[in-house]
């Protein structure tokens, strides 16, 4: 049986309408992720590269010659000031002290005798028994004996110092490196460093700052646009943040000619020795006072020939293109000085799927 053409056309039209109205083929709202414009403490900051420098670092050397009798530390050990490190044989130095002590006793006796002779001469001259020349000679002998005593006491001080140098101690708190001499080694002033002692707590971080940046900062402080002073934070080589903040304690008075930078130094507490001498770190200089600003995630901000804009989603899930002014960006956020209000939602993901005026299926950003 042949179906009439008119009936077939009507059937096809109804089928097309039914198909187009099927829920499976209805147009769905594009899914996007939104985040609200928020008031946050976003202080101005700048990232620089710095190097960790020990506050104190010295090579321990022998000041007198002799064989080492003891090495009283473990390599890598943390020691306090005055800790015994090395013992140089001291027999010869003790003997030298004793010898000078004996010479001092003899000189004291000689001086006492010269004083007696002088006093006797003074008594005899009153009776014209001896001449004035004899008295003068007696006075000179007393002065000579006293001078010899002064010389010997100076020699004893030198001998005592040499004896004390046989005990090599730590001059300050710090961490010891590798020893270059063992027990039995002959050491002396010319043998070179025995071990290096490094103080790690507190510790310095030295970093260069461009002269233009430093001048701009000082000008803004003078104009009252920002407060003076800055917090100093560090990021370690593995990307983790150092838990303690530092303080700037030195700004150089000269400019490095090759780089046009000024050397700045900050001091950090380092109780766990996380910061090691010579480590390269990232330095973040941040203004010290709180600064509340309106900000949105950086990825929400789009730009074209007319400037910056965001796609705002209103309470009815409708999209609006909103022109904004961005003053700066930091820590993944853009500071909006004009064009948005706190709490308005902007699209952070899926912006390429939308256009102004359409309705979207908006989900809040994780942690937003």
Automatic annotation (TrEMBL):
Multidrug resistance protein MdtA-like alpha-helical hairpin domain boundaries: 98-166
Residue span, Multidrug resistance protein MdtA-like beta-barrel domain: 202-286
InterPro entries in alphabetical order: MdtA-like_b-barrel, MdtA-like_BSH, MdtA-like_C, MdtA-like_HH, RND_pump_MFP
Listed SUPFAM superfamilies: HlyD-like secretion proteins
UniProt KW keywords: Coiled coil, Signal
Subcellular location: Cell envelope
Single Gene Ontology MF annotation: transmembrane transporter activity
Residue intervals of the Multidrug resistance protein MdtA-like barrel-sandwich hybrid domain: 57-188
Predominant location: other
Domain spans labelled Multidrug resistance protein MdtA-like C-terminal permuted SH3: 292-352
Superkingdom, natural source: Bacteria
Name used for this protein in its record: Efflux RND transporter periplasmic adaptor subunit
